[in-house]
Amino acid sequence: MRKYVITAHYICKKWIRKVEPDSKAGFSLVEVLAVITILAILITIGVLSMKGPIEESKRKVCEHNRFQIENNYHTYLQLEDKDHTDPLFIQFIHEHYTEELCPEEGTIHYMDEKVHCTIHTEEENNNEENDVPFL
User: Fold this and answer.
1) Is residue 96 part of a domain?
2) How far is CA 121 from the centre of its chain?
3) Domain containing residue 104
4) Which of 120, 126, 1 is nearest to 66 (CA)?
5) Is 83 within a domain?
């Protein structure tokens, strides 16, 4: 009884054909360009589909940061028994927050007992105007 051993070399020899230098095997220029075009379209769709979630996450980060600053600033005013002034708010920001507060480099300011961002507060106001009113 003979034993047959199937090796990787045997499999490669059976399944992979040899390409002769004079053979016509390969891709034409049109096929390569078609594949590149399809890949470019897919990449464009992928990048554009991620733009919305990225912008939304930046807005949410700014909103969360403003909420935290507002709560901390109100607590600071109550604990120190002080009234709000613009220089006091600026001093508070510089003392307690060293990192960037708005991912899109908006300016943070305090007005009407709320912390506002020059970029994202306007966007939120515009979004609220476009909402359907509740009846």
Assistant:
1) yes
2) 19
3) 57-126
4) 120
5) yes
